[in-house]
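Supplementary Text 2. Reproducibility record for the structural model of the 364-residue chain.

All settings were left at their defaults, and a single model was retained for analysis rather than an ensemble. We include the record here because the model underlies the residue-level annotations in Supplementary Table 4.
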Amino acid sequence: MSEAMNMMDKLNIDPSEGLQFGVYSLGDHLPDPVTGTRVSAEERIREFIGYAEAAEAAGFDFFSLGESHQEYFASQAHAVILGAIAQATKSIRIGSTSTILSTSDPVRVFENFATLDLISGGRAELVAGRASRVGLFELLGYDLRDYEELFEEKFDLLQKINQDRHITWSGQFRAPLNNAEVLPRPAQESLPIWRAVGGAPASAIKAGLAGVPMVMAHLGGTTSVFKSTVDAYRQAARHQGYDPAALPVATAGFLYTAPTSQEALKDLYPHVNDGMKRVNGQGMPKQLFAQSVDPASIVNIGSPQQVIEKILHQHEVFGHQRYLAQIDFGGMPYDKVMKQIETIGSEIIPAAKKYTATKTEELN
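Retained model, structure tokens:
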């Protein structure tokens, strides 16, 4: 059985159980735009742990936390926080929303996540990304002009470390390794390593050629627009000799539900708009955001039934195995996030899993 075939088992992906659901946080630490207040960094980190505990109780399959190194974030040491989450949970799989591999040493990244895997009893995953916010390059001593080359070299090295206990390797951006033994080894045979991609097909093609799972993140747009990225990923995998059906695809984006779509838009918009202004320097136009409730939009905002219908449509278009919901961005109050987790767990996940589950006869 190939590594790609093993990946479905590693991630506990069973098509007969339907689409997997996860919660993800970027680790932002923003003020509530409604009240103007902001919790302390200590409290914010404890919120991440609370989210994971609640997600596990609500029946989610996965919880992930991002890494960022700038103002308005509290998850610079995301692997440390994930270690605390591993101790606070028992069964939910845990990992990075995106570990910024371009500005990290793959040896240290592997050491951290192999250790996390041991703490969690074999539940750790790693999503490797290139960074959409680039201030960390200067902070951590890297040249932004090497953006693409840094990631590709380090991603290749991380995969080699994951596959082999002893490594002999040389590259452009770090000292060579000569029969180096990288320890500890994870509880799993090897770490599940995903590649994070945006909407453009180029990075998806590289993920497909490497035969690794893909997480496709999105801020907005129609579901149909993103189909070309998923198709390009699977075509590249097939070209390289991998079975695309054995390579998991995850999508990730905003989810917010309320009794009506109008309430959902009204509740979420201030958080998204103000948060994006502070983090990216540019807010979200209100008219553009209002389009999120359209059935064709890839953003899952609306009543529980509307969100279910959109997720089912996306699954029909993409045939993906996991969906990751971002529900805490922009200073969203803790109690509101916990309510979202409860509602998603009780109303959305059961229905979505029921209608995306592959019948036994379809698997044969």
